Amino acid sequence: MMSKNRTKSEDKRRLILKAAVRLFVEHGFTQVTMAKIAEQAGVAKQTVYSHFGNKEDLFGAAVEYKCASLKLSETLLQGDQDVETSLVAFAKQFGAFIIEVETVNTHTLCAFEAKHLPQLADIFFRLGPDTVITALSQFFSFQHQQGVLNVPQPRWAASQFLGMVMGEARLRAELNQMDDTTLAEREQYLVNCVALFLNFYRT
Q1: Could you tell me the pTM of the whole model?
Q2: What is the CATH number of the domain that holds 8?
């Protein structure tokens, strides 16, 4: 019985998080209420509050939920894959993630709200970009310890790699200027980024 209740509770939590992500990116943080999220999720408002104490907490959980869809550990920490295979898989996954409409709109929302709602930008950076940078830094640190890569500054390397992966496609996505050529060449561009990166950092 307890197991069923727990599963039902987890399902409601997922519905709330999905609704929160959708509403926040479509209408902005200030325009969205807990009541609207509850209505969109098909749950009672009290249910939303029972899972998340306030709108800031819910926003943070929504950002974390969105980033968790990357499944970084599954992509990077495959013991049977070499470093190049792991980085190509990560680059393709992250490269697709950063040009999704929801991802771009969430970033735009936080940048817009940063001046008068700095706590929102802090939540977004801490649970979004910083999580990705940290995970990649840990991967590079491990590869350095194993003697596969020479990465004395793993966080620098993580930022450099992510910057390359973003490339022109992310800029076009933010400006709503994506074209077929950029998308068609995207995969080969990412493979080239990995080759360029490893050419510098491989021992």
Answers
A1: 0.82
A2: 1.10.10.60
